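User: Quick sanity check before I run a bigger batch. Here is a single chain. Can you write out its predicted 3D structure?
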Amino acid sequence: MCGRFVLATPPAVLIQRFGLTSCVDYGPRYNIAPMTNVVVIRQNVEGERTGEFHRWGLLPSWAKDPSIAGKLNNARGETVNDKASFRSAFRRWRCIIPGEGFYEWKPVEENGRTVKQPYYIRPKTDGELFRFAGLTERWTSPAGEEILSCCIITIGPNAVMEPIHDRMPVILSVEDEAAWLNPAHTDPDMLRHFIRPADPANMVAFTVSRAVNSSRNESPDLIAPV
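Assistant: Done. Predicted structure follows.
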């Protein structure tokens, strides 16, 4: 799964890195949790890319109860084209969710009890970004309130993640970026090509402070090795 991640890179870097025509202004965040606004990168039919805020937790357009979004922050890659909650978004409303790294928790024995030790997983090269494969939706309430939402697609682990957890976010390569964002690509068989574990050679993982366990904590110290 993917339940927390980091984005402290300035918007100007995203504009340059992804060729954006515009990007929302945001501050550094070191403990991004579901049901908060995150930056998503989308591309329209004219080929223009923008960085927008969407709430993390997919809210399908047909949903009667908006609370369902709290259960849909991740979509399993193996079934993303089969589930009603994700099928339309997978074919038509894909996005990239940029992040400098993400957290995962591993159960460990400590003083006779099991506790969850947080790990931080980041690109091996300093300054690089992960491109999490995401989906977006637009929901309108009966009163006319509009909510833009998103989720992150997950898959089984690679060699870096396997000792930590049995799931990981789908991380797109630079070469996959254009095809994934292109709204003209709607063939699910073609799109499944991108749903795979990332190359472990490009990732590192290390233990970090348990202060990250609380989503109220926000500090660069959260991503420091311990």
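The CA atoms of residues 80 and 135 lie 10 Å apart.

User: Great, the batch can go ahead then.
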